[in-house]
Amino acid sequence: MSTEKEKMLAGELYDPGDPELKSDRVRARAICQRLNSLSPGATQAKARLLEALLGAVVSVKINTPFVCDYGYNLRLGSNVYFNVNCVLLDVMPISIGNDVLIGPGVHLYTACHPLSAKQRKTGLEFGRPITIGDDVWIGGGAIVCPGVRIGAGAVIGAGSVVTRDVPSGVLAAGNPCRVIRRVTENE
After folding, report:
1. Which one of the listed residues 113, 120, 164, 182 is annotated catalytic?
2. 41 to 46, 49, 79: CA distances (angstroms)
3. Which of 31, 79, 88, 160 fits a disulfide with 53 by CB distance 3.0 to 4.6 angstroms?
């Protein structure tokens, strides 16, 4: 029989009230709280906290405040930049490539709830992973929904709600987010 954590990581319905998952979230939120309370110049302390949160040494710049559910489901490439007030609900993997810029107030959600009201009342939820390719720029206030893939070199306009996959090398914006045009090398 699978644990609730194993079900969560497999994208199956799981109970978020499970004691192990609650403990994992409390741990991640405590680390985020310490991270968010550091002075801007505390780079060594910040690096140690990020390593504890993510389980690895990473080449990432995170401007606080920053919030995530677990931390261990974040897979970050090199030279990733998070501006202030980013929220990552990482019940499933959020994989971010190299040289990615994430604007202020961007939210990345892998958590889902059943559409059926009867099933929602059970309290069970599930997740779908998010994948963001290399060289992506996500503008401020954008929301990326569960299961979305954003291709390399794409630009997501500020305030967009990304509900579907975005191909590589395009400018996409709006609610719902849609492709506007291709991005050229001289822009």
Report:
1. 113
2. 9, 14, 19
3. 31
